[in-house]
Amino acid sequence: MRELAALDIAATAVAGGVAFGGSWEGCYRANLGSRIASRILWRVAEFDYRNEQDLYSAARAIDWPRYFRVERTLRVNVTAQKSPLKSLEFATLRVKDAVCDRFRDALGKRPSIDRANPDLRVHAFLESSRATLYLDTSGEPLFKRGWRAGAAEAPLRENLAAGIVMLTGWKPEEALLDPMCGGGTLLVEAAAMARGRAPGAKRRFAFEKLAAFDTGLWERVKQEPRGSEHAPAVYGSDTEPKALNAARRNLAEAGVERWVKLERADLLERTAPAPSGVMVMNPPYGERMGSPEELARFYPRLGDALKQRFAGWRCCIFTADLRLPKLIRLEPARRTPLWNGALECRLYEFEIVAGSHRRPK
User: What is the mean pLDDT of the chain?
Assistant: First the structure.
């Protein structure tokens, strides 16, 4: 909600997200400017249901041709929580049929279905007796910023990386270091925040294909000032040349390469780039580092390196390895539960001071 408030959008917390009302201006601004949202959905109907026929009847009653042209391709997604329906596939089929039949009734033809790359998506969310239908104003998920070089999927989605940077409390006037940067997702998001770059500036949105789309309003929203532009001190390093090359490409595609200094270095040996700052990293647990036994040997060495070379820094480590605090032999100042897809993770924050953290007996 704080992020939307900064975009002049008043929102309230709801299950699984936040909700806001208002004009299309707010919708455009949220899609363009939200760093942590996954999608912006427009609620078009809400109704009680008991079976698939109720879904079909309610969805067919909606004036879909009012919202988009029949030439637009379509996909329907259905998710459920405590729904009495036996098959979500059949429920999806009935909602799709309802939308298409409404078009056929009105125009004598129906939109085509495209599951891979549709122009528009209808989302249905089913609870025990209540159904809600949405039109997706985002299209591709908002974490797809449009800058990532290559087709490989990153370990961190961009909106999760942005949320992690925000949770560290980092300010652009502080130094920031990702010493295991991989493809540079955390670095890109941090530099883009500091420079006031809109996360959606390099991509298109589904609302541009809706009947209500206002080109003039959208151009005005895109030209709005994004706040102060800082010259951040952002640093990244990795031991793998391939990772560093990917990071350089991604930083360049995002237009923030001049604000980030990359170097090849081993975290266990490198020095701090500034007397104080924020370290944030997502160690490649179980991937490049190998077995749990190898990680158990690595973490104590990591703790020693932090104490020896990063006194005065806040070190924030995002990991799914919940053994980390015990093995690193440092007491977290804060631990924040997060999810990376279906993987339960923690963001651990350590305040590094010279000497030992242990209290005298």
Answer: 93
CATH number belonging to the domain at 158-197+227-351, selected among 3.40.50.300, 3.40.50.150, 3.30.450.20, 3.30.56.10: 3.40.50.150
pTM of the model: 0.91
The full set of domain ranges for the chain reads: 41-136, 158-197+227-351
Give the range among 27-36, 118-127, 143-152 with minimum mean pLDDT.
143-152
Q: What is the DSSP letter of 65?
A: G
Say how far apart CA 235 and CA 261 lie, in whole Å.
5
**Residue type, position 247, single letter:** A
Reading the block at residue 68, the tokens are 């988009």
d(CA 68, CA 209): 7
Q: Can you tell me which residue has the tokens 């031991």?
A: 239
Per CATH, the number for 41-136 is: 3.30.2130.30
- Written as one letter, the residue type at 229 is E
Q: Which residue has the tokens 């760093």?
A: 35
User: Which of 1, 65, 63 lies closest to 36 in space, CA to CA?
Assistant: 1
d(CA 250, CA 50): 49
Q: How far is CA 349 from the centre of its chain?
A: 21
Could you give the maximum distance between any two Cα atoms of the chain, in Å?
Answer: 83
What pLDDT is stored for residue 150 in this prediction? 63
Q: How far apart are CA 142 and CA 213, in angstroms?
A: 19
The residue with tokens 């939109």 is: 111
Parallel/antiparallel/unpaired status of strands 130-136 and 120-126: antiparallel
pLDDT confidence tier of residue 359, bands split at 50, 70 and 90:
very low
Name the CA radius of gyration of the chain, rounded: 24
Q: Please tell me the distance from the alpha carbon of residue 350 to that of residue 22, in angstroms, as a whole number.
A: 41
Q: How buried is 244 (Cβ within 10 angstroms: 0-12 exposed, 13-18 middle, 19+ buried)?
A: buried
More confident residue, 285 or 308: 308
